[in-house]
Amino acid sequence: TIIIELMSLLSIKTKYSFSSKYNIKSKSDMRLIEIVKSIDKNGIYLSGKGGSKYQNENKFLKNNIILQYINFDHPTYSQLSEKFYSGLSILDFVFNIGWKKASTLI
To answer: Between 20 and 30 A from 86 (CA), which of 24, 32, 40, 62?
Structure first.
């Protein structure tokens, strides 16, 4: 997949797993909970801060899953526009600063 290829190009070495491996049919929060429980019955689910707008923390707690939000401070980098736009994809980051510098900053 493109994510695995990007990880390779950016020298990111970490374990990963595809959710399709777990054959889970539930939706929304319960899908996330079941995936985490398949990996670790008392695990932690790391979510972007935007997830706090729609995730039900009580569902996670009732299933012994810790729901933790990542407080990500977006680095600024040189873009083609005069104004900096945060929250764009890794591709914008790489296309503006290059693979080597992106890998170093990550």
So the answer is: 32
